Amino acid sequence: MKRPYYIFSSGRIRRKFNTILFERYEDNAEGLSEETKLLKMEFHTAVCEEEIIELKNTEDISEKDKKFVPVEDIEAFYAFSPLDFNSAFLNFVTQYHIPVHVFNYYGGYAGTYLPRAAVHSGLVTVRQAGFYLRPAERMKIARAFINAASFNILKNLQYYLNRGRPLDECARRIGKLRESIGACETLPQLMGIEGNIRDEYYIAWKTILTNPDPLFRFEKRSKQPPLDPVNALISYGNGFLYSFILTEIYRTALNPAIGYLHEPSDRRFSLSLDVAEIFKPVLIDRIIFKLVNKNMLEPHHFSVGEEQCLLTEPGKKMFIREIDEKLKKTFLHRDMKQEVSFRRLIRLELYKLLRHINREQDYEGFMIWW
């Protein structure tokens, strides 16, 4: 089975014969020759500990200092540190339909090298654009995204309500806002409702997050850059989810640039943003609650400055390990009557949208039932 590879260390990644080779740069290698820069390599996947390799002090560059990855084994690359690669590498991953997602210094999603479409369908693209161009059809899909996303938010609140947290009033206000979704006739109205729901939800986080450490005090959402550890976790998680969903869209006939809730533009994949709204509460938010409330995070997982807060390399690794395990976790699907993983669930969500675009079945966003 193919799997994602997460790269947390700076280095060079290139084609070597018919496989992929990663060579790590020494962190403090400034002024050294190109040969002696390759002193230490660390290549990470969150799949198993055997895939995590760390070579200690050596100045000899031999085969054991290099990580070879069979190209048939790779679903996608996620680069969380600076990488060097050339056109030969890009041509090679294109042949095997492997996306390369790049994250910036702040841990946010920066961009993707997306090979030519693995699944072509001009008819689907035309139909997908047609739904965008017809306001009533677009609004129907956009409302389905917000309806599902807000339902999953309410489910998170209900979980903590059942454990004695005083969230009754917040849940009531969000429930009232949800009643207005069906009456929205324009996208600005719908986005206004969505923003109000998010505001109420983040107020509830002050009650949900119980870690007494002042480091994890959460006051409000801040972005670009995040100002505190909780906001750093939100931004990092949302950026990863966006890129992961983009990989899944790439495996279907859907065009990731044509969205319905988020306006298409020249520099983003709007459909990824749309679908991510549904799964943020289910995946990212629940992981953050777990990491903070179970005291799994420590000060060394963050780099806190006066005007920004970033996850350090250990913090990034912990978060990615958690979400990778979450994506592999299976549960009994109540409609399919079989075990599916969250990774598979996202692909199924895209197939539901595809059936709507092909006018086979009306789209309804995923709503968690447990």
Describe the structure.
- With 370 residues, the protein is α/β, with parallel strands linked by helices.
- The protein folds into 2 domains: 3-98, CRISPR-associated endonuclease Cas1, N-terminal domain (Ribosomal Protein L15, Chain: K, domain 2), CATH 3.100.10.20; 122-357, CRISPR-associated endonuclease Cas1, C-terminal domain (Four Helix Bundle (Hemerythrin (Met), subunit A)), CATH 1.20.120.920.
- 44% of the residues lie in helices and 15% in strands.
- The protein is built from 10 helices and 14 strands.
- It has helices at residues 34-37, 87-95, 122-133, 135-161, 168-178, 187-208, 229-250, 270-293, 313-328, 342-357, and strands at residues 3-7, 11-16, 19-24, 42-43, 53-54, 67-69, 74-79, 83-84, 100-103, 109-113, 302-304, 309-311, 330-333, 338-341.
- A 4-stranded mixed β-sheet has the order 1-7-9-10, covered by helices on one side. The protein has a 4-stranded mixed β-sheet with strand order 6-3-2-8. It has a two-stranded antiparallel ribbon with strand order 4-5.
- Strand 2 (11-16) and strand 3 form a beta hairpin.
- Helix 4 packs antiparallel against helix 5 and helix 8 (270-293) crosses helix 9 (313-328).
- It is globular, with a radius of gyration of 22 Å.
